Amino acid sequence: MRFFPLAGVVLCTISWAQVGVPAAAPALPQPEPSTDPLGRTTPRGTVLGFLTAARKGDYETAKRYLNTTLSGPRADSLAQKLSVVLDRRLPARLNELSIRPEGSQYFPDKLDTDLVGTISTQDSTVDIVVQRVDRGKTGAIIWLFSKATLDAIPALYEEVNLVSVDTALPAFLTETKIAQIPLFVWLFVLVGMPAIYLLTGLVDRLLSPLADRALHRPRGQPDSKRVHVIPRPVRLLLLALAIHWMAASLNLSLLSRQFWSSVASVLTLAACVWLVLLLNAWGETVARRRFEQRGGQGSVAILRMLRRTLDLLALFGGGLILLSFFKVNVTAALAGLGVGGIAIALAAQKTLENVIGGISIIADRVVHVGTFLKIGDTVGTIEDIGLRSTRIRTMDRSVVSIPNGQISNERLEDMSCRDKFWLHPILSLRYETTAGQMRTALGSIRRLLLEDARVEHGSVRVRFLRFGSFSLDVEVFAYIVVSDFAVFLETQEELLLRMMDAIQAAGTRMALPSQRTYVAQGSAYQESEVPEVVKIRNQL
């Protein structure tokens, strides 16, 4: 049932193009309007006008497209033979004929001639050529079939011995028409094409289980996708090949062959674009699995955006190829898209900045989901990295979304990748501590650090640092070799308690922030003279 919409499109194309109707108008875009009533101002107009007149049996008009001196029945006979030769043996390339008054200039040394096609004979090949000549009292320059081509037509006519589809099929299939379309065309579109497509689907159903067994797909994997031996795009390609074979074997008329060639080309292009989309989806699936195995969940967003971009490029490229196939000028459309793209880029400047920032963050792998870090004043754990923003779960369990453009310019402090933690307390001892007590305390603290297996021994440093404003300051410097912050806090707590025990065992104490104030009576004073007015104020 999925094939019938495609068949409807093909039938609509038949009615629109009218190339499959033997007695109808030409199947290609009409040439530009001209002053010549027969449309002979372009090579395509000459060829299509001649074929139209010949298929109507109007050889009186058809011979006016010939550059010949013959007249009467001899000219009519030559026009009839030329129409048969073109109808049966000329390659279906009418869409490539030039629509310009000066022609395509296929022959650089003969700018007044243009190639229509090449016909193979038993001994060699013959070029069907139109020539630009000056005819009429008005001096109009028109295109006519050249004399050299007309001289070769009788010999080519004798070699036309293929059986026409009009005689090979029953008369009611060729003479009966619905909407000016022969009945056999309707049957092929509605019956033949779906039958070919369904037949390839049946072959795929028969061969796919064998392919599953031949590959690494054992039984008992219901979640795995089936391997298709003949995917649907390939089935469309096979259908296009069948149409090509049909056109060559049945010896259809030139206009019919041109139509079916166009249908096959459109199917081929659609199948190629479809195949690119499937390969793109398969590549995204494989890459996503590998990134997830390596812990790169943030790259999934880039993969999805890259896939959509490639899909759009494939569809856009297919559309351009299709338009160029039918000789549609896409220069203006591309120019409009360029201007529109610039306008969109200017309007979405901030959004593009965030998207590019997200790509750079994910590509550089600076951070990933689960990282505990500090971005500016925000500290928390990354929960999701998108293309526009990054979500962070803060310490108070709220979620903050930061634009990626801002993150790419901020200073990032990753706290999750530390291999060891810095233990760096400053111990403040009372000024009443003697030198001996200080030496004892320093030695005890140094020993307890060196005896702990979790401390990096090469980094241990315990020094009397300075005379502070209210204490004797001792610097303790060491690295704790643990990977978890909670373990570090537990280890630090134990070491600090042991340092307190060592200080107390040395006979001193930790100092409290304090300030000594001396108050004097009179104009002069000495500290020894007023000991009872000394006040000690502790400032905690």
Primary descriptors:
disordered C terminus; alpha+beta; 49% helix; 540 residues; 4-stranded antiparallel beta sheet; single chain; 16% strand
Task: Please provide a brief summary of the model.
Helices cover about 50% and strands about 15% of the residues.
User: What fraction of residues sit in β-strands?
Assistant: 15-25%
Tally the helices: 16
SS-derived structural category: alpha+beta
Topology, number of strands: 16
**Low-confidence stretches at least 5 residues in length (pLDDT < 50)?**
1-5, 7-34, 527-540
The residue fraction in helices comes out at 40-55%
Q: Domains counted in the coordinates: how many?
A: 4
Spatial order of strands in the largest sheet: 9-8-7-6-10
Can you summarize the main beta sheet?
A: 5 strands, antiparallel
Quick one: overall form?
elongated
Looking at how many chains there are and whether they match, the oligomeric state comes to single chain
Mean pLDDT: 76
Gap from first CA to last CA:
86 Å
Radius of gyration: 45 Å
Q: How does this structure look, described?
A:
It is a single chain. The chain has 540 residues and is an alpha+beta fold. The protein folds into four domains: 25-178, no CATH class; 181-217 and 226-328; 367-414, SH3 type barrels, CATH 2.30.30; 421-512, Alpha-Beta Plaits (2-Layer Sandwich). 49% of the residues lie in helices and 16% in strands. It has 16 helices and 16 strands. The protein has helices at 4-17, 43-55, 59-62, 73-89, 147-158, 165-168, 171-175, 183-214, 232-249, 254-293, 299-325, 331-347, 349-364, 404-409, 435-450, 485-505; strands at 113-120, 125-135, 140-145, 177-178, 181-182, 372-375, 378-385, 389-394, 399-403, 412-414, 421-423, 426-429, 461-467, 472-480, 514-517, 535-538. The strands form five sheets. A five-stranded antiparallel sheet has the order 9-8-7-6-10. Strands 11, 12, 13 and 14 form a four-stranded antiparallel sheet that branches. The protein has a three-stranded antiparallel sheet with strand order 1-2-3. Helix 1 (4-17) runs antiparallel to helix 8 (183-214), helix 2 packs across helix 4 and helix 4 crosses helix 5 (147-158). The longest helix has 40 residues, at 254-293. The radius of gyration is 45 Å and the shape is elongated. The two termini are 86 Å apart.
